[in-house]
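hey all, quick one before standup. I had two proteins in the batch that finished overnight and I want to keep them in one place so we stop losing track of which output belongs to which input. First protein below, input sequence then structure tokens straight from the run.
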Amino acid sequence: MPSSILCDHRLLSVLTWAEIDDLMLPRAERWLLKGDISVDYLEYEMRLQRESELLRYRSRHGLLDINNIEKTLFKQQFRFEKDITELLCALMVPNTVTTAQNVKVPGREALCLTLRRLAYPNRWCDLERIFGRHTSVMSSITSKMLNHITANFGHLLKDINNHEWLSPPTLREFANSHSMM
């Protein structure tokens, strides 16, 4: 038994091309082709759908359950692979980060919040739904994390001429390899 109405030859013989397109195109693409919505609005809607996927990964306390997020969704939302433990060690993130409001947040969550904020400049109120934290707490966490990273690793950026791996030939090679992609 055919699973699609497009397999019915009698039906296809009476449909116009526009009607067939309407059957095959998703609603958003149909609206875009008709000019009912803009590309910016469509991108906004798609971003909201991806963010709503993150809401499935909230714990019973309303906080983001990082361990259960799928790898592809994690990379899409945070711009990093899910092996966050190595990044926590490399950046020397403390086990808990205490905010100005005296809220204790796990270092893992603080790093993920910072990565998410840097990956895409969401408004704090948009991130409230995802992370289950108040805007002032999230702002404080991110500031603390960026201050921590700057305090521990800012010296690496003070004088980039001190690094042998940042020599002009190495940078040229890097630029050439990326221009060929």
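OK second protein, same deal, sequence then tokens:
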Amino acid sequence: MMNLKTISAAVLALAISTSAMAADTVYVWRNGSSNTYSDIPKNLRMDHANKMNVRTHNVRQATEVRHKEPESLAERRLALAQEAAERDKKLEDENKRIMETNAKIKQENCAQARSNLSLAQNARNRDQLVPKYTQDVSKYCN
């Protein structure tokens, strides 16, 4: 009975210490006349809550407020053109890689078909195999 109490006390102490270590950040916001504390920001939006460190009790904004200057139309067009050029380059690279892979596979298929044909020349049932492998060579080696 004493051993069970010791084990349960150890498990309880471990659970408490683990939960305290896991609770690093708490989000705080005003809800009417009271503060609300949670490990998830209000409505899952970082701009509605402040971040509070549980250990140090420091409170800071969850996200930095950045005042973005409006872009001019020319800047937006330039950015869109650059993005389109990057996408086109990625597509060209991908297509080139696919074509290289397909060419390699075609060479491997041709080599295998020729190997099969040369092996069929010496087989006992070559009358049945040679036409099939000749057809494979003409299919894969063009």
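Flagging for whoever picks this up: Residues 89-140 form one domain. Helices lie at 2-22, 73-120, 126-140.
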